[in-house]
Fold this protein.
Amino acid sequence: MTRLRLMLVLALTFATVGITTPARAGLLDSLLGGSSDETTSSSDQTSGESCRPTSLPVLELGVGSCQGVRPGSRVQTDNGSCTLNFLFHGSDGERYLGTAGHCILSTQPLSQNVGERSFAAGEGVEARDAEGNRIGEFAYAIQEDPKDFGLIRLDDDVEASPQVAQFGGPTGVNDEITTSPTRLSLFGNPLGIGGPLASGRSLLALGGLSDPDTVGAIGVALPGDSGGPVLDEQGRAVGVLVTVGAGLSPISNPGPIGITRLTPQLEQAEEVLGVDMDLQTAPQL
């Protein structure tokens, strides 16, 4: 059995039996004790193409490759593998891509409150794409509940698309406070593999979007999905996936998947960096 096939079987097995873990959703290599270094000579960073993986009926997973630097793509650091969320243009003329803060702040995935850091240009932790190519460096990161967010300052020569893999969008930001069950969409890189195992999934927030900072949802999220973009049915950005779980009901998944909402985290980053961030939008697919 190939490694990719084995990983897919493991992912579907986890979802079926409803295993839940409080671990942060990224830092796969920290969990497994391995290294994420996969440097190659590839320089292909084109990301203007739509990313529509082949849909599978099982667990509402969409599985397939997602090329380029974009929301939903894999990002690697020396700490491990995570997922990119949304693209922003800064008032300083720079471009920024989000992910989870714990992707660089903590080598212990279970740590909850590590702190907050900002990095001047040329001093941040390097971020690399799925092929191991440098795409930029971290400008900001926070891991203090309920916030878990990071911003990568992209290098000038890196092409990046604002369009979320498979789903399209974001069409805007959802800051609504509601108590009605809400269907959400996540695109991530389960088990830190990316490529053929990159997947789009449906999540359900049974309690709605009742908290301005966090959302709990049921569905499937695995290590490597950390930082992934979470959208509502209108394609609006809701937040960032930060904790993992697997289960198909509240009974099998008593510890719901954790999502931190976008606006409070972005406002905090703007204050620390002294930069206004403009979310880059795209049509739904």
Remarks:
- DSSP finds four helices and 19 strands in the chain.
- Confidence is low (pLDDT under 50) at residues 1-23, 29-50, 53-65, 247-254.
